[in-house]
Amino acid sequence: MTQVKKKVAVMTSGGDSPGMNAVVRAVVRMAIHMDCDAYCVYEGYEGLVRGGNYIKKMGWEDVRGYLSEGGTLIGTARCMAFFERAGRLQAAKNMVLSGIDALIICGGDGSLTGADRFRAEWPSLLEELVSKGDLQKEQVEPYQHLNIVGLVGSIDNDLSGTDATIGAYSALSRICEMVDYIEATASSHSRAFVIEVMGRHCGWLALMAAVATGADFLFIPEKPREDNWREEMARVIKKVSGILPNRRFLCPSLINDQHRDMGKRKTIVIIAEGALDKHGSKITPTMVKDLLADKNGLALDTRITTLGHVQRGGTAVAYDRMLATLQGVEAVKAVLEATPETETCFIAITENKITRKPLMAAVKETQQVAKLIDAQRFEEAMGLRDTEFSDQYKSYAMSATMNFGEDTVAKDEEVSQHIRL
Amino acid sequence: MRIGFINVGAPAGGMNAAIRAGVAYCRSRGHEPLAIHNGFAGFARHHGDQPLGAVRPFDWLEVDGWASKGGSEIGTNRELPEESGIEHIANLIKQYKFDALFLIGGFEAFHAVSQLRKARNQYPSLCIPMVLLPATISNNVPGTEYSLGSDTCLNELVAYCDKIKQSASATRRRVFVIETQGGRSGYVALLAGLSVGASAVYIPEEGISLQMLNTDVMHLKEVFAKDKGQTRAGRLVLVNEKASRTYSAKLIADIIREEAHNRFESRDSIPGHVQQGGVPSPMDRCRAVRLAIKCIQHLEKFGPRGYERPGQIAQDSFSASVIGIKGADVVFSSMQDLEENETDWKNRRPTSAHWMNMKSVVDILGGRPDYPAPVPDLQGLMAKDAKRGLEA
User: Fold this and answer.
1) Residues 6 or more apart whose Cβ sits within 8 Å of residue A88
2) Identity of the residue in B33, B229, B286 whose CB atom sits nearest the CB atom of A211
3) Is 50 exceeded by the pLDDT of residue A419?
4) Which of B13, B126, B242, B320 is most open to solvent, judged by the fewest CB atoms within 10 Å of its CB?
């Protein structure tokens, strides 16, 4: 009997993110290298349900140049049909007809949850297809188990268990670039800007952007502000016109200084789209702006910039290309090594290490974070984010003089005698 | 504590962000951060300049704006303490009553910490905690898999290569040979190759041989013979500046052009110092903040006036250390341990390249054929004997 080549398919699903094309290229080429046939499923789950031309065999040259393209070239779509069993039944039939042995899906937590459910249902779907007479028993025989591996493609970086999702650093780059531009005009006009960034339930983009740009104040879902956030923000940003030159040199008495008091000419506030106060009510950019612009308060000339879809666009940064490529390669190895007993896994990265992790545990944890935030159990929510997240949060708190209640230690005695030289 | 901040070596993205975070953290803890301008050269010869000496406090209003600045605001210099005069440096550290040193830089900074550590038994003033935060585009500092600036550099290279590839594709059938920096470390060349889909990457760790070039050139000829594609027909070859003493980017491009016999084209291109980047990448900036704070926290543990108890400081091997990312962890490594066990001093890089396993991925996905690996150079007496036919 001649050895039949395994067929490995790759699909992008959910919102597009920079780096998805690098995933497709890596999977297609690695699969071919491992002596498999490579397929692309176009338009996400929609393509799986429609079948036919949507499931296409790919050659080595077909993915040439994919690394330097943004978005996803094989398309993605919101697919309502796949939420229904009938849709999944059709998808299963199409996969059997195309002879797909393994499926690699790059998408967000929603897409990956769908994938795991699909896998769990797989035997019963095949059974139904045979009993309905859609497929013959012999046809489904070789496809008793569906191998699925997930890759996390999302700009939000909201999946638990991995430090970075594919696309997150590209989006962060875009945000920082925009903030850098805004800073120039903010500084020139001595203005305040409230910048809203994406991220759904996750404050990663907002937090990292604040760390990278040295923003004056930050609102994220995981760390909602106390009731007095208005006073707190006002204190930090307090405006005093003019620069006080003799106070510009560092001295301990300035430790709790306020940014405008020091003569700072620009004010940047970064707000995550999911920002909340302690009671779970939304904090909007307009609320922040009104406060900054309040004639009886700070009275700053304030503008709102909502970055929107700019954040999703463009080509992937080097890190995302590397991450997507290495994870794509690992995913092909993982699907080929998987047995019926192995749990569905996704490919993660921790600091500098690429690993396989159980998918469902991570998805559950991710959904748990959202639930905890909804239930206003913020400390626990923060605990479920990775160490980098809380580390960076502390870094931000320390470097931005926000006085987040982090420990400020007694100065050692000699510091007080300083300020000479 | 009085903590001296100093940049050593070439500029790298994130240096300023690291200083800003370190200064902010020092302020919140009541320490006194002091800038040492222009590296050890500035310290040694300009510390007493009037009206502005090389050692001075930070102006927070100014520092606060450094989060996204490229280059080095306090100036950086490659001079090593032994070149400046180690006794002189030790005396200055005493004179300015430094309780700790925070160094940010590349392999020179690593070398500098090594020199200062080794001179501790002669000069008690050097018995203060010192920590190095690696910052170099070459990513060649022992003790870490990532150095500040390397991500910025990769992004510059990726942007550069994307443009070159577009040009190569538009003019059809053209190979570009691009020379990258990185010293004797092939890290940026390889990772850039991974990110842009290079047909071949030449790195110093492996070297270049005639047979290897031959295989790659033959492969290019085959590919172009078969290729009737109208789009995306550009090819990139990346070569590290020190991959070979003979086969430079220009020579490789010339060889390819000669061998192509007018069936396709070849050009060389050298981005040079553009690779240091303009505005540092967010990853470099964010990691700078996080790692810098960890560094100051590490220095804090040793307390002020270490020079009054030199034995105790010198005995603790972590009093001179390097912060780094290794695998899944952020770790401090003792300088002595790194010097003795993980440093290839001759080639100015770590003894093992953690990224070498990515080489096969680049080659596989770039469709590069198997090639004969170059033979490693013989060294010292072995080489002498071999040349005289006296093989053992």
Assistant:
1) A82, A118, A121, A125
2) B286
3) no
4) B242
**Burial class of residue B51, CB neighbours in 10 A (0-12, 13-18, 19+):** exposed
Asked about A163 being catalytic, the answer comes back as no
Given B17, B157, B365, which is nearest A29 (Cβ)? B365
Q: Which of A37, A101, A116, A156 is catalytic?
A: A156
Residue with tokens 């200084």: A257
Residue ranges with strand state E in A190-265:
192-197, 217-219
Across the interface, do B286 and A409 touch by the CB < 8 Å criterion?
Answer: no
Region B112-134 average pLDDT: 96
Beta-carbon separation of A322 and B329 below 8 A: no
> Rounded to whole angstroms, how far apart are CA atoms B336 and B22?
24
Q: How confident is the model at residue A200 (pLDDT cuts 50, 70, 90)?
A: confident
Q: Is the pLDDT of residue B101 over 70?
A: yes
pLDDT of residue A417 exceeding 80 = no
d(CA B298, CA B292): 10
CA-to-CA distance for B23 and B18, rounded, in angstroms? Answer: 9
Which segment of A305-309, A400-404, B126-130 scores lowest on mean pLDDT?
A400-404
Helix, strand, coil share (%) of chain B residues, nearest 5:
45, 20, 35
The reply to whether omega before B51 is within 30° of 0 (cis) is: yes
Question: Nearest chain B Cα to A323, which residue?
Answer: B195
Amino acid (1-letter code) at residue B370:
D
* Secondary structure element (H or E) that encloses residue B250, with its range: helix B249-260
Residues B130 and B168: beta-carbon distance below 8 Å = no
Which element (helix H / strand E) includes A30? Answer: helix A20-33
Write down the pLDDT at residue A1. Answer: 46
How close, in Å, is residue B9 to chain A by CA atoms? 23
Contacts 24+ apart (CB under 8 A), B209-214: B209/B372, B209/B373, B209/B374, B209/B375, B211/B371, B211/B372, B211/B374, B212/B371, B212/B372, B212/B373, B212/B374, B213/B247, B213/B252, B213/B255
CB contact A28 to B (< 8 Å): no
Rounded Cα gap, residues B73 and B66, in angstroms? 8
Helix H or strand E segment including B320:
strand B320-326
pLDDT of residue A409: 36
CA distances (Å), origin A348, targets A351, B85, B156? 10, 49, 26
Torsion of CA B144, B145, B149, B154, to 10 degrees: 170
Overall average pLDDT of the A125-154 stretch? 92
pLDDT score, position B33: 96
* Alpha carbons B177 and B155: distance in angstroms, whole number: 18
Q: CB neighbours of B35 closer than 8 A, spacing ≥ 6?
A: B5, B19, B55, B56, B57, B58, B74
Chain A CB contacts of B30 under 8 Å are 252, 255, 408-412, 415
List phi, psi (to 5°) of A150.
-100, 145
In the numeric block, which tokens belong to residue B23?
Answer: 């200064």
Instruction: Give the residue-averaged pLDDT of A6-23.
Output: 95
| Rg of chain A, C-alpha, whole Å | 25
Residues B43-97: tens digit of each pLDDT: 999 999 989 999 999 988 889 889 999 999 999 999 999 999 999 999 999 999 9
Residue keyed to tokens 């200064």: B23
Structure tokens at B54: 């090389």
- CA-based torsion, A176, A71, A157, B152: positive or negative: negative
* Among B145, B231, B367, beta carbon nearest to A352: B145
pTM summary value: 0.91
Residues forming a β-bridge with A127: none
What percent of chain A clears pLDDT 70, i.e. is strictly above it?
A: 88
- Report how far residue A319's alpha carbon sits from residue B176's, in angstroms, rounded to the nearest whole number: 23
Nearest to B239 by CA among B222, B262, B256, B227: B256
**SS3 state at B254:** helix
